[in-house]
Amino acid sequence: MKFVTKRIHAFLDYPVALALIALPFLLGLGSSNPLALQLSVAVGVAALVLTLLTDHHLGVFRVIPYRYHLLIDFLVAVVFILAPFALSFEGLDGYYYWINGIAVLIVVSLHKPEVAD
Known about the structure:
SPW repeat-containing integral membrane domain-containing protein; mainly alpha
């Protein structure tokens, strides 16, 4: 059932990073706590840098092993799921983080293990 390959994941990384930067402004996040907007933008910038540095076919510098990239994605998902509780995000602010966190957990959990070369 695991079908998200390294290649598919690489194609998802850039648009997701850009969405994390742009969507908070488009959705008007930050009504319950200004950190709701700022956290997403900061994670989006970090995700863009991570993608540029990841060792996959769309990485530019390829210095971070892909398995570490997946670990970081998992940790970000956990932070996103916990952030509404820890930072008192309510309404759309909270739903935004829960939906994104769950989506990232699903993608990571559906990752197809790589075949050794």
